[in-house]
Design goal:
about 375 residues
Length: about 375
């Protein structure tokens, strides 16, 4: 009942902030929520579907291992190869180098995505999913295409598929496209989350794929409450934003794009963690009633604890969950997932599962 109350109250908050309550169309919103429920049942209760999701997850795990073969050759033991010296077992250090062993999968996934785009496999899958979204939720072809593509691509690449039609988008359609982008993640970054969550939850990749699939209809429902569409929907088919001279050209283009993402993620992690440390150092001069120092995490815990409780998390664990939600919102989801791994032993399995879904998205400042 707590989770159902949470759904009702969170949607109610969106209704309160809606800019045009009279124009809200409730049928597509109800269908979007129903689609979420159906997808959840299919993914976790139907063996054929859950088996397919696990197969997808295993393919990405194979890509992780293949990427490590490349990092071992290029970076040696820093990239995951055997360490050529004795390691003191009492040392608190680790030979795992996140930037050189975890992040390079972004480059490989980006190159593979471009290759699948060149072979017309990715556009076909996107088109099939967009047809389902258009028929069930009544959105235009252009918006349906971007929502479907968001499952596989990032926020930069997705709008390129319908770039010629963006000028025709209504304010509501632009907002929905942005919300879908923030509420979901991209295939190229999922292996990083999976690497962090290994040992925290069983089959992390399956849950990450499920989270993105479930978040798309939820994002469309919430955005249509906040800014209802009062204009004609924009019909369109996906265009080809890339011109390749061959398969290797597609791979090289994808590699270059992946390198940019790799460097951006690495730089943002350094800055994000530095800012947290700086903020806590400044706030540490303020003492709370229990004698402990004030920190950013504690501030987030106070503010966001009610929202964590509305998600179905027990009140006793809501402050820790709220801190993770705050870190994810102000910094990014990679830092938040790392925090979840550190806090997992003090949380129930149910709370850990909820937080995996809550943190899986690009929504941050």
């Amino acid at each position: 009942m707590q989770a159902f109350l949470g759904i009702f109250l969170l949607l109610g908050c969106c209704w309160l902030f809606s800019e045009n309550k009279q124009q809200i169309r409730y049928t597509p919103i109800i269908k979007a929520l129903a689609l979420q429920l159906v997808l959840a049942v299919l993914i976790f209760k139907v063996p054929a579907v859950s088996g397919f999701i696990l197969k997808m997850a295993s393919v990405i795990d194979i890509l992780k291992q293949s990427t490590q073969d490349g990092t071992k050759f290029v970076f040696g033991y820093l990239g995951g190869a055997e360490v050529p010296f004795h390691i003191n077992p009492d040392s608190a250090g680790s030979t795992f180098v996140f930037a050189l062993q975890a992040l390079p999968i972004i480059i490989v996934m980006s190159a593979l995505s471009m290759l699948l785009f060149y072979w017309r496999i990715l556009p076909f899958v996107v088109k099939m999913i967009s047809i389902v979204l258009r028929r069930l939720l009544g959105v235009g072809g252009a918006l349906g295409t971007t929502a479907a593509a968001k499952i596989f691509l990032g926020n930069i690449e997705t709008p390129l598929l319908i770039r010629p039609y963006l000028k025709n988008f209504s304010r509501s359609e632009l907002f929905t496209m942005m919300v879908c982008g923030m509420a979901s993640t991209a295939m190229c970054i999922m292996p990083i989350y999976s690497e962090i969550l290994t040992g925290v939850i069983d089959f992390p990749m399956q849950h990450l794929i499920a989270a993105t699939l479930l978040n798309i209809p939820a994002a469309m429902a919430i955005s249509q409450i906040l800014i209802p569409n009062t204009s004609a929907i924009t019909e369109a088919e996906a265009t080809t934003p890339y011109e390749f001279n061959g398969a290797m050209d597609a791979v090289s283009r994808g590699t270059a794009d992946g390198l940019n993402i790799f460097l951006n993620v690495m730089a943002m992690l350094i800055v994000a963690l530095a800012l947290v440390s700086l903020g806590n150092a400044l706030l540490g001069n303020i003492s709370l009633a229990d004698g402990s120092a004030l920190s950013l995490e504690k501030i987030f815990g106070f503010i966001l604890a009610p929202f964590a409780w509305l998600m179905g998390i027990p009140w006793g664990e809501s402050h820790i969950a709220a801190q993770l939600l705050g870190v994810k919102t102000v910094l990014n989801e990679i830092v938040a997932f790392s925090g979840l791994k550190a806090q997992a032993s003090s949380l129930s399995p149910s709370t850990v599962g909820i937080m995996v879904y809550a943190l899986c998205g690009f929504a941050n400042f």
